[in-house]
Amino acid sequence: MATFNKFESFSEHLAEKVHNLDSDLLDCYLSNATPSASVDSFKADLAEISTGNGYAGPRDTQNATSRSGGTTSVTGVDIVVTASGGSVGPFRYTVLQNNTVTSPSADALIGWWDYGSAITLAATETFTIDFGSSMFTVA
Predict the structure, then answer these.
(1) How distant, in Å, are the alpha carbons of 8, 68, 84, 111, 122 from that of 108?
(2) CA-CA distance, 84 to 77, in Å (whole number)?
(3) The dihedral of CA 20, 22, 24, 27: what is its sign?
(4) Of these four, 21, 39, 51, 84, which has the most CB atoms within 10 Å of its CB?
């Protein structure tokens, strides 16, 4: 499983009440553009791959939160992308954004997972965005 990396603006956005990680709509999208932790803050900063052939764009993670002591876990339901009618990709990154946020700008970025190299799905192949026991934790 790929490791979660956070965008630096995410910690500021938490302090400024931009995110409600339990009730806001958190989406994942696929990208082949290299994320910059210090520069990228909103979806407009980090390109998504083209939609089509089974990839319909950002997908809802069905997120929820739970707390144990001083650590809060943000969980999500795994997302499966199935290529159909052609290939999907290439992509190397899954990007997590808050689709509810409209201020200070739309679609505030939270973090990303790096799969190490570009992936292209041929028709009928699937790719699972596997969140494991949690997408990420806030401690």
Answers:
(1) 11, 26, 30, 10, 31
(2) 22
(3) positive
(4) 21
3-state SS class at 98: strand
Would you give the DSSP letter of residue 44?
G
Amino acid at 65: T
DSSP sequence for 4-33: EEE-HHHHHHHHTT---TTTS-EEEEEE-S
Q: How far apart are CA 57 and CA 52, in angstroms?
A: 8
Residues 76 and 73: their CA atoms lie apart, in Å, by 10
**pTM, rounded to two decimals:** 0.96
Q: What's the token pair of residue 34?
A: 């290299």
Q: 48 exposed, middle or buried (CB, 10 Å; 0-12, 13-18, 19+)?
A: middle
Q: With contact defined as beta carbons under 8 Å apart, do 9 and 41 qualify?
A: yes
In this predicted model, what pLDDT tens digit does every residue of 24-56 receive, in sequence order?
A: 999 999 999 999 999 999 999 999 999 999 999
